[in-house]
Amino acid sequence: MADMEETEFDDILDDWFIESLKTYKDLYVYQLECPTQVIEWTSGTTVCVSGYSSSKNEILELRLPLKLFADENKGLCAERDFKVVHGGFTDGPVHCLRHVPGTRCVVTNDGLSSDLQVWDLGGDDGDVIRRTGSVAGGRSVSQSGSRIAARLSSQPEVLHGAQSGDVRLTQLTSGQPLFKLEADSLDPLSSLQFVSEAVFLAGCCNGNLHIADTRTSAAPQLSPPPASSGESVLWWTDASAGPSCSDPSGCRIVRVSSSGQAVISDLRNPGEAVSRAQLDVQTGRCNLDDVRVSWAPALRDCIAVSGFSGAVQIYNTSVWKTELQETRPLFEHRGHTVSSQSDDGVPVRVTAHVWHPERPRTLLSAASDGSVHVWDWVDQPAGSC
């Protein structure tokens, strides 16, 4: 029986490999010692990852295969593997990690408290990642710790919090608090994100969205999720703008529920649905850290969704309508599932994904088996973004 299962697995893997020759422009695989929930860009060619097991974990800066970036004469490029360029160890898990733009610094949270850990990634003179400090969080703690957003003003600053009523902006070098969100509720956060130099969104797991400006003490704008059918226990949020955007009015917001519904709204009227869709995902019991949704930074109208299963799905939101309709993904990366044979019977699940900031169809994804994939899919003529 075991031999038959292994043969069937090999056949599935072979079929997928043949299919991938036509559907992927590039596909590279790396295996971590422990799985990660965080993939954060530290440059155009390097990312930071770290394990989330309860004991000691590695924190690594990986350089992507240089062959990925050799658009011409790829066969002449010898570097086709991931490379560890800097590394260190954490005493606990890493559930959230953010790189501070313009620096060699990352900030992490262990998911156990609202406090943050500050790390120096090192430079050309050394390959060791060292912890250099900490930032005290608020009193509130959610089941998955603090969310983090970072910006570089005159000094590096981080926005952080576990709940909507405890979000604060802190200067890293001095530890000085610069701003605190005065929200009445204490809803656990699923996301925290700058959409301009001063405006940020605090997305709550119940679908509520707080829109605030760090330049004023005015109360934040509160927007419940647009009305939708079906029972939704959790919501995840992402915005299409970023700190470099001078006009946040062009920002679009996507909220995805644990029932598989996705709702698009505009920052100027976040309570009204511009479009919506029922995603083709495996709905079931989800935890707050399971699902990821993100707008493509260099591919108009596309989002990536992961965490419902072992796949990463790409959706073209430009074809969605105001009324709820079922939709199929534009592309689905199933590489983590088909290339892993679980010994304990637990299906492999995608734990994180991130778009490349400049390459339109290049993404990185990580899974619960410790695999990390970087892939660039081939544009499909029909219904493409």
CATH topology of one domain: Methylamine Dehydrogenase, Chain H
Radius of gyration: 20 Å
Report strand %.
35-45%
The percent of residues in helical segments reads: under 10%
Please tell me the CATH architecture of one domain by its name.
Answer: 7 Propeller
Per CATH, the class of one domain reads Mainly Beta
Shape: globular
Q: How would you state the average pLDDT, rounded? A: 87
**CATH homologous superfamily grouping of one domain:** YVTN repeat-like/Quinoprotein amine dehydrogenase
Structural notes for this entry:
- It is a single chain.
- The protein has helices spanning 2-23, 335-338, and strands at 24-31, 40-41, 46-50, 57-63, 83-90, 96-99, 105-109, 116-120, 130-135, 147-152, 156-161, 168-171, 177-180, 189-194, 199-204, 209-213, 221-223, 235-239, 252-257, 261-266, 269-278, 292-295, 302-306, 312-316, 331-333, 350-355, 362-367, 371-377.
- β27 (362-367) and β28 form a beta hairpin.
- It starts with a helix and ends in an 8-residue tail after the last strand.
- With 385 residues, the chain is mainly beta.
